[in-house]
Amino acid sequence: MTEITNIALDAMGGDNAPAEMVKGAVDAAEKEPAMKVFLIGQEEVIRRELTKYQFNQAQIEVVHASEVIETAEPPVNAIRRKKDSSIVVGMKMVKAGKADAFVSAGSSGAILVGGQTLVGRIKGVERPPLASLIPTEKGVSLLLDCGANVDARASHLVQFARMGSIYMEHVLGVQNPKVGIVNIGAEEEKGNALVKETFPLLKELKDIHFTGSVEAREIPHGQADVVVCEAFSGNIILKLYEGVGAVLISKVKEGLMSTLRSKIGALLIKPALKQTLKAFDASEYGGAPLLGLNGLVVKTHGSAKAKEVSNTLIQCVTFKRQKINEKIRECIQTDAVSAE
Amino acid sequence: MTEITNIALDAMGGDNAPAEMVKGAVDAAEKEPAMKVFLIGQEEVIRRELTKYQFNQAQIEVVHASEVIETAEPPVNAIRRKKDSSIVVGMKMVKAGKADAFVSAGSSGAILVGGQTLVGRIKGVERPPLASLIPTEKGVSLLLDCGANVDARASHLVQFARMGSIYMEHVLGVQNPKVGIVNIGAEEEKGNALVKETFPLLKELKDIHFTGSVEAREIPHGQADVVVCEAFSGNIILKLYEGVGAVLISKVKEGLMSTLRSKIGALLIKPALKQTLKAFDASEYGGAPLLGLNGLVVKTHGSAKAKEVSNTLIQCVTFKRQKINEKIRECIQTDAVSAE
């Protein structure tokens, strides 16, 4: 019999909660029978949403949590004080082994703090990075750390590279993923102090396929499958991706509406263009896991809709089936340099 | 009588030298009569190019330099050894006061090193930042430092903010430009150690209009006119802008060619789309000045064509007319906090 993946879903987090969270859970449960979703949050509100759908009762369960952590709240305080919030309740289920994963579109800060303090790190993991899939010309790449640990050290980046490599290989199915470090030039002697210190350490690793520096210009071309950087840079990359994409697409649309001729053209190209731009839509790829925790914690976009939620839930099943955490544990506890 | 701006142009640097450099010089001289361009490089090659054009002989002069610094050469060595290279000869003309500005599409490293060692800094300027104009939804913003000084300190960033503000106001004509610091969240307590140290210093400045943090997502929307950051981050922003833009546009083109219907549509939208994308084309905005030097040094894209070269040369005239260096000198020598 297939093992069930139990997932605690924050029904109260994000701009579109609870409606899109509940819809995402129903959709995912229908697609993946070996999944059970615990909808965490204000029971009455969630139940009202659930009446809109038909679903397998054995796959969806409501877990009441009376409080909600708002995005603006200072995360450490929020986690400490709001013991009955959806984030704290969900994370404690992971800690207790009642859930394999926790998924939330809520406060990034609270999810990062809660992940470290409530769920806890795998022994040997120094800092758990937030790992996002980003669209490229060739498909997707994994960008990490994209927001969890600013001012990280070289040894942290080395662990990011190893964990990211495992994730890309076993969750995304990329054989022998190419690992690159974000740099401001292609040559080894280029970079800031952190990159110069990290580069030779990555070069020595026997368990990853390190291909050297990646200039930011090459990231969208898919030059590396695993793109390693410190969180300040990673967050810039992630956010700028969205910003440039959004502005460029709005400019294109504006251009299309500028003349009668272009308006007619726009009608003709619409279906083809939509298909193309879909490939550059982050919501297609599910949320960003916080790697290296004793359990899985995934942050989706604050603006996540049902589709992103559903994709994320299904990703959690793959994460469990592929035993990613066991692989990370084994890898971190092996001295990488001496590994064959 | 209008004062003449003398500009030394590296005729040998960049992917399209000397043809596009020479063409750019001829175009600019025709547009701006109060400009004299010294074409620096191998005389015979430059003269051969010049025979293709009609131009005012008083405005264009060839200065022979036998050597060329290649992009791959270690910059410090190249500047030291190739005394008769176009970069060294051109920069020495600025140092000697024979030229007001030096423009090159050649080796970034050599231009940065040469700028500091041959042209020299304005007294009080700690690090000269490379300042690029980047396209936004609203027009352009100035991004600095985008590559000159990695691992910069807070005091450097403060000077970048002040110099950038002067440039935006007097070269681009933006009244009271909004200055933002690149950060990974909008709140003051967010950021890495450098940003946390710099933020309160910027807040205290009386001579700039500091508006706080700018998340990378907001940069393309034009949230700040002057976008301040350390060079590692700045280089990532600059290069990712190009990379995401290039991939997205190629994806759109691919989408347009995917069906017969979309191909017909593509013909109709082409002129409107071209117009739109032009606004997102970096070459429209000229090169990136290295601010804070005793004279002006401007780096254009390695791939610069005549149009970018010509725009850059005309920018040099504005730079001189607006007495930007005098303004920077005055500003840096004033204690900004106590300035009214």
Q: How would you summarize this macromolecular structure in one to three sentences?
A:
2 copies of one chain form a homodimer. The first copy, chain A, is α/β, with parallel strands linked by helices.
Question: Keyphrases for this structure?
Answer:
six-stranded mixed beta sheet; alpha/beta; globular; 11 strands; 340 residues; homodimer
Describe this entry's structure for a reader:
The structure is a homodimer of 340-residue chains. With 340 residues, chain A is an alpha/beta fold. Chain A has eleven helices and eleven strands. Helices cover 44% and strands 16% of the residues of chain A. In chain A, strand 1, helix 1 and strand 2 (35-41) form a beta-alpha-beta unit. In chain A, helix 3 packs across helix 5 (108-119), helix 4 packs parallel to helix 5 (108-119) and helix 6 packs across helix 7. At the A-B interface, helix 8 and helix 9 of A face helix 8 and helix 9 of B.
Rough shape of chain A?
globular
> What gyration radius of chain A follows from the Cα positions, in whole Å?
21 Å
Strand order of the largest sheet of chain A: 3-2-1-4-11-10
Oligomer: homodimer
Q: Could you tell me how far the N terminus lies from the C terminus of chain A, measured between alpha carbons in angstroms?
A: 35 Å
**Average pLDDT number of chain A:** 92
User: Largest interface, and how many residues on either side?
Assistant: A-B, 61 and 61 residues
The structural class of chain A is alpha/beta
Helix/strand order of chain A: EHEHEHHEHEEHEHEEHHEEHH
Largest sheet of chain A: 6 strands, mixed
Compute the number of strand runs of chain A: 11
Q: Hey, roughly how much beta strand do the residues of chain A contain?
A: 15-25%
DSSP helix fraction of chain A: 40-55%
Number of helices of chain A: 11
Low-confidence stretches of chain A: none
